[in-house]
Amino acid sequence: MIDLSKLPGTAADEENVFFLRSHWLILLPIAIGFLIVLVLPFAVWFGVNASNPEFFGTPGYATLYVLGASIFFLYAWLFLFQSFIDYFLDIWIITTHRVIDIQQTGLFGRTTSELLLDRVQDVSSEVKGFIHTIFDYGDVRVQTAGEKERFVFENVPHPVHVSKRILELAERRRSAQAIPAVND
Amino acid sequence: MVSLTLFLIVWIVLLAIYGILVLVTLIQMLRHGLPSTSAYVTTFVFLLVMAGVVIGTSIYFTGVDWSVTVNVVPEGLLPFFFGES
């Protein structure tokens, strides 16, 4: 597993400030979809029983149903877990020196990007929509001097607080680098 | 008429493929996940439910007569799809 205390390229005086994930609410549509899928085998059972109550009493057909329904459920359950992993392994780590963006794409795709805090020019936050406002989650956009937006933290909790914190850290980092070292 | 044993073999093959997918998924989770309570709990719940279904169906299968043959398109299902004739 990832050890936050042993991130690659960690400087001697670098400390982890916090790490972010998208708000858990974005899992809700997946969970609802899974519940609907889960109900399907039972719906088939009730439907068949309603149209032909003796069907599952015939030798072999109940077993066929159990075979089909069990493997259907297992694959649906695995799909739900993989969707959860896709969400769970997307993280943003903010340290005193940099911002690390780790994005999981499916099971076998993983992109890691880094941005030094002293290059951060602008950080903006956006909370849009009723549900987003009630639960206080939204997007944080981190901009460097380049044209293209470098990082977008999607659907993170408390985006206003996060953006302020990143700006503070970036300013602190620039100040620390502007002070020349004094050697006695 | 097809023997139930054939369907059992297909089920076992699908379960083996499923097992490989679960293994790969768990390796990814363990390799890239952050060590946290939620990671452990969700993985445990996933494995628990999966084991429950596999063990439950296996226990059910011990009481099944696998020599029984079935129609691939059971007559009893026709009213379910096409209504009463």
TrEMBL record, chain A:
Residues 93-162 form the YdbS-like PH domain. InterPro entries: YdbS-like_PH. The chain crosses the membrane at residues 24-48, 60-81. Pfam families: bPH_2. Keywords: Membrane, Transmembrane, Transmembrane helix. This is YdbS-like PH domain-containing protein. It comes from Candidatus Uhrbacteria bacterium RIFCSPHIGHO2_12_FULL_60_25.
TrEMBL record, chain B:
Keywords: Membrane, Transmembrane, Transmembrane helix. The chain crosses the membrane at residues 6-27, 39-61. It comes from the Bacteria. This is Uncharacterized protein.
